[in-house]
Specification:
Layout: H1 5-47, H2 52-64, H3 69-76, H4 80-87, E1 90-95, E2 102-107, H5 119-137, H6 149-155, H7 159-171, E3 186-190, E4 204-208, H8 209-215
Antiparallel strand pairs: 1-2, 3-4
Length: about 220
């Protein structure tokens, strides 16, 4: 049975009065905590012979307390801009959600996200992004379907391929091996893609750009 409205009004007033008393008590407790913290920090700073204790204090307050950077700056006499630099990165043991390996994560600022995946997965992501970028800039229409286009585009930018290309150009005397042109842009053509990255002499030939396009029927 629902209580009478006037009884509920009285109960609500009592709850508000109790809450106001609790809030006032918590405010006084917070003020006491602020005073104690300020006194302790001042004592620490006064007894320090160098900056190390202060820097350790900032590191602890920055990463392991809920104090705002402004409050930490007021307590330690440092600008909020310098706090992150003084505190240094936060390091922690984490598990990579992608490969399940453990790795040491780093967070360099309260406002920045921590590492989400391990360095190996980050490197793989960077490599894949670079391959995708190169794919947009390379004409790979001539490749057979079994050749990975992103991998091929990345390979053309590698030191290994650049060395192979130089060797092929020197063997051809820096001339097109079809029309003997030497005043055109010279390109190294793959006769076979079966040994990408470990090409034999017969896998490569030097062609001028027009001849290369004709070989691939791109005109």
């Amino acid at each position: 049975m629902q209580r009478m409205p006037h009884i509920r009004v009285v109960e609500a007033i009592k709850i508000r009065e109790y809450a106001e008393l609790a809030i006032q008590s918590l405010k006084e407790l917070l003020a006491d905590g602020d005073r104690m913290l300020e006194e302790a920090v001042n004592d620490l700073r006064a007894g320090a012979e160098d900056d190390d204790p202060l820097h350790e204090l900032i590191r602890y307050l920055y990463w392991h307390s809920d104090l705002s950077p402004k409050k930490i700056g007021e307590l330690t006499g440092q600008s909020t801009e310098k706090l992150c630099y003084i505190a240094g990165p936060l390091v922690f043991l984490a598990a990579c959600p992608r490969c399940n390996s453990e790795f040491v994560g780093r967070k360099t600022s309260r406002n920045r996200q921590c590492d989400q995946v391990c360095p190996s997965c980050q490197a793989a992501d960077s490599l894949e992004a670079h391959r995708a970028f190169l794919l947009d800039w390379e004409d790979t229409r001539h490749l057979p379907p079994e050749v990975d286009r992103a991998g091929y585009s990345a390979y053309l930018q590698s030191p290994m391929w650049k060395d192979q290309r130089k060797k092929a150009l020197r063997r051809a005397g820096f001339r097109c091996q079809v029309c003997s042109a030497k005043d055109q842009r010279l390109e190294v053509h793959h006769n076979s893609y079966d040994r990408l990255g470990r090409e034999l002499i017969e896998d490569l030939c030097v062609l001028c750009s027009p001849c290369h396009r004709k070989v691939h029927n791109l005109d």
